[in-house]
Amino acid sequence: MRTLTADLLVLGAGVAGVYGALAAEARGARVLLLSKDPLPSGSTPWAQGGVAFPLDEADLEAHLQDTLRAGRGLVEEGVARSILEEAPRHLERLLAWGLPFHPEPTREGGHSRPRVRHLGGDRSGLLLLQGLLARLRGPVLEGHLAASLLVAGGRVAGAYVLSPQGPLWVRSGAVLLATGGLGRLFPVTTNPLGATGDGMVLAWRAGAALRDLEFVQFHPTALPDGSLVSEACRGEGAVLRNARGERFMPRYDPQGELAPRDVVARAVFAERQATGGVYLDLRPIPRLEERFPSVVAQARALGLDPLREPLPVAPAAHYAMGGVRTDPRGFTGLPGLFAAGEVASSGLHGANRLASNSLLEGLVLGERAALAALEDLAFPLGAEPLPAPLLDPGLLPALRARMGEAAGVVRRGEGLREALAWVQGLPLEEGLPGALEARPRLEAGHLALLARLLLEMALLREESRGAHFRQDFPEPGLEAYHLEAQGASLRKVPVGV
Fold it and tell me: 290 and 121 in contact (C-beta within 8 Å)?
């Protein structure tokens, strides 16, 4: 078995992973960064929206209140405040590195004022990631998928990895998970093919806790193929219309098209059912092709012309608010294991992520987690991999259809119970794959396991809050709490504990 060693092993090459690797390199650490797909990889390059930075010290409190309002009582206020307080330092650094942020911020859904900084129009995530990758000194191993964490005496000490050259062991002083979300659990998603919840499963099987998986944000305006139409379009004047040509959002929320995403997604869902379709009219936006070139190109690839007609849109799975529970420095509670970005549940997003807070979280928590990991390096003897969940990938279309029906924008207890019983009956196996060709079976196993945990949490949460809407429990409960799964245990944890 081939073996590599590093001080810090970073799994995932999106904004959180790359920025964390840069922070560790700056401290002189030996960093190994793995990406299971070719660069630029992960969800970051797909991010059309920008980075939400407080405009100034006076705006920090307003930004915090917007974040708390969107999170529907589940945001950890101390975590959110600390991230926003740290944000200006990261913006100054990125500007000093020459990243081409537009000088004028824009406004997106849930924000009370324009504070979202873009790069390259609607190519913010791609240009941000390319700028960070260009500064890396160490290698990025592409086409490498971690199948299991190496564990010794309750400590994570590396990973068992599938590579194009065969399996290898990476022994490291600590591991930083930055593997992204689980959008591929649903039939329609804005996420890339690799968004299969890998890091969440790796962490949970090693003993870390997963939190709030039931909160999946559905972006309200995706094209029929799942391509995202940036929320910034609505910030610049685009309006939603139903099949009768009526603008409907002011009936659902005083902020209209700029209401929080959970509100807009449910409104789009309701209008599609009531009238037969929903359309986004981009024609009010001046210089549309110049300002949103990716959106225009995606629409035209589908035979649609946004300069002449409104575009058909529908909600699509977009962002996982839940994930591996961490403290404010990215520590998972499991020695040697840290997490940042969408894979993690840091407490910033609560029940509903505020637009463009995610790239900011990736920057701040990516650096924090990497630096915290360097303070906790150890190389225990006898570290061994854990067995991985495996499933026939041919079952994924049926799994995704079940999840779309039962755990989509609107949920009911009966549908959740039926879906859970079906998922529990899947022939999930355990093993340690020996070749990269096993990737489809491994990813399918990850999605099946996460489907079960998500459905269990959605059933237990008998209320409607943020992105989790139960028709049979349409009002929020009196008490705000997190749901945590750790091993066989599923428990309620009060916010702030």
Answer: yes
| 40: preceding bond cis by omega (within 30 degrees) | yes
Please tell me the pTM assigned to this model. 0.95
Provide the token pair at 276: 């037969």
Q: What is the DSSP letter of 244?
A: T
68-72, 85-89, 224-228: least confident range: 224-228
| Rounded alpha-carbon distances, angstroms, from residue 401 to 247, 405, 413, 423 | 30, 6, 17, 12
- In this structure, is the dihedral angle defined by the CA atoms of residues 229, 232, 234 and 236, taken in order, positive or negative? negative
Which of the residues are catalytic? 261
Amino acid, res. 387: P
225-257 pLDDT tens trace: 888 898 889 989 999 999 999 999 999 999 999
Q: What is the dihedral of CA 163, 165, 171, 174, to 10 degrees?
A: -30
> Any residues with CB less than 8 A from the CB of 420 and at least 6 apart, and which?
452, 455, 456, 459
Q: Which two tokens stand for residue 316?
A: 């699509």
Three-state secondary-structure class, residue 324: strand
Report the b/e string of 178-212 with b at 16+ CB within 10 A.
Answer: bbbbbbbbbbbbbbbebbbbbbbbbbbbbbbbbbb
How far is residue 446's CA from residue 182's CA, in Å, rounded to a whole number? 9
Question: At which residue do the structure tokens 């807009």 appear?
Answer: 264
Q: In terms of Cα–Cα distance, which of 41, 349, 316 is closest to 184?
A: 316
User: Could you count the other beta carbons within 10 Å of the beta carbon of residue 348?
Assistant: 25
Within a 10 A sphere around the Cβ of 376, how many other Cβ atoms?
15
Strand extents, DSSP E, 79-211 = 116-117, 140-142, 145-152, 155-163, 166-177, 210-211
Using DSSP, state whether 76 is helix, strand or coil. Answer: coil
- Residues 33/17, Cβ–Cβ less than 8 Å: yes
**Planar angle of CA 25, 374, 205, nearest 5 degrees:** 115
